[in-house]
């Protein structure tokens, strides 16, 4: 018993099967596009693990029983780096969705074996895309078996919520919000365009704020001018009142003088 346990614990599960990730640039590009866009799609969900070309070992103690899907998604497992996906160390949760991108080097027997493996070990959705032939196939688990999806055009993945559409010369994949899966170059271009638009928006906001400040300054200057005008008007009114007071005082003094002359018998009208 002790000897069997020692042999089990000595088993090495390699992180690589010695096979290249892709046979050509087209296959590699599609693997990266699907894997990275799935990463973006679930970036805010800490319990969705996405991997590309990662060895999946479903059974403890058997390091020959393994597959490396071109892309796989595991719901219920945390994000993080892994050398391989050892299912018994992952709460025994199998990848629910896997993708395979075909190349001219893929053999029919190999794809049959992969399908049997994925079906046996619990994959719920299996998608196969041939970029050279523009051919997409999908399989969905039903009553314990992976059965072909009859109509793949505009098919929406039950698990991922993404939509597949075979378009003019290519496969289009759309997120649940309708955004297309994009390659790094297009993503970077859109990122730079978005940053440039944000810069322009900030500039417009700054110019608008500067114009509001100038408008406030003009309003303040206008208010100051109105205050000065009111002050000038008040001063003028005060001057008119003083002038009336001086005139009234002079008139009163004149009347008093005339009254005094009359009392003295010296009428100002006499010669």
In short:
With about 270 residues, the protein is α+β, with helices and mostly antiparallel strands. The chain is built from 4 helices and 10 strands. It folds into 2 domains: about 180 residues, tt1808, chain A (Alpha-Beta Complex); about 70 residues.
What does this structure look like?
The chain has two domains: 2-181, tt1808, chain A (Alpha-Beta Complex), CATH 3.90.1570.20; 183-254. The protein contains four helices and ten strands, in the order ααβββββαβββββα. It has helices at 2-9, 25-41, 108-120, 184-263, and strands at 48-51, 56-57, 71-75, 85-86, 97-101, 125-130, 135-142, 145-148, 163-166, 171-174. The longest helix has 80 residues, at 184-263. The chain is rod-shaped.
Strand ordering within the main sheet = 1-3-5-6-7-8
The number of domains: 2
- Average pLDDT figure: 88
Instruction: Enumerate how many helices there are, as a single number.
Output: 4
Protein name: Uma2 family endonuclease
Domain Putative restriction endonuclease: 42-161
Region (Disordered): 194-271
GO molecular function: endonuclease activity
Descriptive tags:
271 residues; alpha+beta; 2 domains; six-stranded mixed β-sheet; rod-shaped; Restrct_endonuc-II-like; Uma2
Write the layout of secondary structure elements.
Blueprint: H1 2-9, H2 25-41, E1 48-51, E2 56-57, E3 71-75, E4 85-86, E5 97-101, H3 108-120, E6 125-130, E7 135-142, E8 145-148, E9 163-166, E10 171-174, H4 184-263
Parallel strand pairs: 2-4, 5-6
Antiparallel strand pairs: 1-3, 3-5, 6-7, 7-8, 9-10
């Amino acid at each position: 018993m002790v000897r069997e346990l020692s042999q089990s614990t000595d088993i090495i599960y390699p992180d690589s099967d010695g096979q290249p990730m892709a046979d050509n640039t087209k296959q590699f590009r599609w693997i990266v596009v699907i894997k990275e866009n799935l990463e973006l799609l679930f970036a805010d969900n800490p319990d969705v693990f996405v991997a590309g070309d990662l060895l999946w070992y479903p059974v403890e103690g058997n390091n020959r029983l393994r597959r490396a899907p071109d892309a796989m998604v595991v719901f219920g497992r945390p994000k993080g780096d892994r050398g391989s996906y050892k299912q018994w160390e992952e709460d025994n949760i199998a990848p629910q969705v896997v993708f395979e991108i075909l190349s001219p080097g893929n053999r029919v027997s190999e794809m049959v074996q992969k399908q049997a493996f994925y079906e046996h070990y619990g994959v719920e959705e299996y998608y196969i895309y041939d970029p050279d032939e523009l051919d997409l196939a999908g399989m969905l688990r039903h009553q314990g078996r992976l059965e072909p999806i009859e109509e793949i055009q505009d098919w929406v993945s039950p698990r991922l919520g993404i939509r597949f559409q075979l378009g003019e010369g290519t496969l289009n994949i759309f997120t649940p919000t309708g955004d297309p899966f994009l390659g790094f170059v297009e993503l970077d271009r859109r990122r730079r365009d978005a940053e440039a638009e944000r810069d322009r928006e900030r500039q417009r906001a700054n110019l608008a704020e500067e114009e509001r400040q100038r408008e406030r300054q003009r309003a303040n200057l206008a208010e100051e001018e109105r205050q000065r005008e009111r002050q000038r008007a008040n001063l003028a009114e005060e001057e008119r009142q003083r002038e009336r007071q001086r005139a009234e005082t002079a008139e009163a003094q004149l009347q008093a003088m005339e009254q005094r002359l009359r009392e003295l018998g010296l009428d100002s009208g006499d010669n």
